[in-house]
Amino acid sequence: MSKTNVIFHQEEKVFHLNNGKVSYLIQIEEDGVVSHLYFGKSFESYSNHKKYPRRDRGFSGNVPGNSERAYSKDTLPQEFSSHGSMDYRIPSSIIRRESGSNLHDFRYFDYRIEDGKPELKGLPQVYTESDEEAKTLVLTLKDRDQEIYVDLIYTIYSDRPTITRSTKVRNLTANSISIEKIASMQMDLTNSGIYDEVISLPGAHVQERQLQREKINAGIKTFESRRGTTSHQMNSFIALVNHDTNEFSGPAIGLNFVYSGNHSFEIEKDQIDQLRVLVGINDYNFSWQLNSKESFQTPEVIMVYSDSGLNQMSDNYHHLLRERVARGIHKDRQRPILVNNWEATYFDFTSEKIKKIVDEAAKLGIEMFVLDDGWFGHRDNDDSSLGDWFEYKEKLSDGLKGVSDYVHQKGLKFGLWFEPEMISIDSKLYEQHPDYLMQEPGRSPSASRDQHLLDMGRKEVREAVETQIRKIFDTVNIDYVKWDMNRSMSDAYSIILNAQNQGETAHRYLLGVYELLENLTRDYPEILWEGCSGGGGRFDTGFLYYMPQSWTSDNTDAVERMNIQYSTSLAYPISSMTAHVSASPNHQTGRSTSLKTRGDVAMSGVFGYELDLEQLNAAEKEEIAEQVQSYQEIRPLVQYGDFIRLKSPYKGNNVAWMFVSQDQKEALLFLGRILTNAQAVFNEVKLAGLNKEFVYEDVETKEKYYGDELMTIGMYYPDFYGDYQTQMIHLRKI
Ligand code: DGJ
């Protein structure tokens, strides 16, 4: 393990966080203004030669209290900017005092360095298993007039090119203050021209996380969600890169926000081409009343630096999220191959139908059956019963327990779908507690999919749902839960909050959800939890803290899934990405693909099926039984091996990625070609991550290859015939 340290160079007033992988430098300038000096590749000694230069620039005023004209907050790269003291770039915070003033000017106050990492109460976070794993710097700033303090919390992790950052505001004034904006991190990068492009993951329902890469131009660019959740439309991750950065070379800084609500990533290229980057809770519809002596802790951001391309950045996220964000017994366990009845039956099922699917699943070797939406209340379609978490007796003549017992007798595990944060107007819960629905009283709320949000910021509302869920867990044998959420937030108003606290509703909602998840996952540790929000609308690092896997997308089309899974892997591990084989033609796109193609794509994630097994012919059943067996063989490699992107579906017709075991003795190559043409060229691919000294054998064909040659001269794609072709090649060291 390399030395992880945070050193304060007293004379130069420089903090150096260093772990042999990355260095982060912060300087206290004249009058206690805190500047950002560096984040990137690690180095040992700093001579203080790189203090930010001074220059008198027109219309860039001076640091309050300092008459030096060349010293301005308007251009100085800072760690946490102030609002109203002549820094005209986007502010890291806006804090309004009782006087109505929102002026503040934060200066260095003191610092402490601790072993390990302080817990962020009530929030998802990166954790450590021992204090040796990390060191934390808490750098405290104070407004120059008021008793308002801001703790900038930096944790550097041993042997990972990773720093997490968050912010805590403490109000020691006698009055309450209103936080209208508070970033979890700010980083100002000087005009080195290194980071001139940004990668983000925008999308839509059934089209999540589409890789977008663009030039950073002058002005402000924001990547955000205002939907109360992470959203399908913009994931909570970006990467800053150089125009030359590719999968294998060039610098990249990843910023991954550990939060599942309204987020915002702001990038400003200023008047002298410097970059300011801010990440935090979106200030849209947000404010937080902080009473005297109270504090507000923001969620944290995981910053990863790579000097050799995007694969290295992703690899660090994969390890960290698997090892120190995901929790519980399932985080390192092989995940069961499941069949889910959603695309097989939608709402139209009975106990008998379910049993037939289970019978088939058992014959094919499938390991778990998941009963999706429609088993509760009187739910025959999506316009009723959310909030009524008791079995629908007319549909399930054997009851939920009967189904679960049957599934277990057949040797499978049993999983169940819930959508706990929602309420239907047509429900018993609404009949009894109409006020649990989140809305401004007297103002009709917007429906979406005929459903509404419960105000999860209220304890009694959470308890009403929790009690019902616990009753099911305590009476029915449940091995897995799919936690869904099928609409965005609207009508953000909470009847338990005062007028001046209404801006807290969305964040309090999420804190309530996190608390409920904490209680349930703690008390039912054997259950494997899967996050979901109409597919991947809440695919984020915050949810991963409670649930080690998430439904990647409602889009199960193998071709579109290649894009979705490829770009999701930028920030999230394969063990978190669930992927199912569904019917052909596909229900979302109408496209027909072979069972092999569907299998190969889904086997590149946490594998399962989502089709009516009863409708299959004998040949298809045989193929599925083989797929199940193959996946069982490659499962540890896929779920816990190192994942390497080789050819991007965003760049052309050919796709390639691979998995390599930690000891490099085993690898799995996935090759895909989208469209064919009559005079197809012979495509080639160079492998990566293998041991060049090893000789590998193709498990199926027994052909032998040297690791060195596969990585240097590569191999040809098979001479595919037809559209949407894929191939998996399993290599083992001999
Ligand atoms: C959205 C999910 O993503 C689907 O898999 C399914 O569970 C439906 N909801 C059920 O309503």
Question: Which descriptors apply to this entry?
Answer:
single chain, 734 residues, alpha+beta, Beta-galactosidase, Chain A, domain 5, TIM Barrel, Immunoglobulin-like, 10-stranded antiparallel sheet, 8-stranded parallel β-barrel, 38 strands, globular, binds (2R,3S,4R,5S)-2-(hydroxymethyl)piperidine-3,4,5-triol
Helices and strands, with pairings:
Elements (H helix, E strand, L loop, with lengths): L4 E5 L4 E5 L3 E7 L5 E8 L51 E4 L9 E10 L18 E10 L4 E10 L4 E10 L5 E13 L7 E6 L9 E4 L3 E6 L9 E8 L10 E6 L5 E7 L5 E7 L6 E3 L4 E3 L3 E6 L2 H16 L13 E3 L1 H4 L5 H14 L3 E4 L27 H11 L3 E6 L3 E2 L4 H5 L19 E2 L5 H17 L4 E4 L21 H19 L4 E4 L9 H4 L4 E3 L6 H11 L8 E6 L12 H8 L3 E5 L7 H23 L1 E6 L6 E7 L5 E8 L10 E2 L9 E4 L5 E3 H6 L2 E2 L8 E9 L1
Parallel strand pairs: 21-22, 21-30, 22-23, 23-26, 26-27, 27-28, 28-29, 29-30
Antiparallel strand pairs: 1-2, 2-3, 3-4, 5-10, 6-7, 7-8, 8-9, 9-19, 9-20, 10-17, 10-18, 11-12, 11-14, 13-16, 14-15, 15-20, 16-17, 24-25, 31-32, 32-33, 33-38, 34-37, 35-36, 35-38
Helix pairs in contact: 3-4, 6-7, 9-10
The structure holds (2R,3S,4R,5S)-2-(hydroxymethyl)piperidine-3,4,5-triol (DGJ).
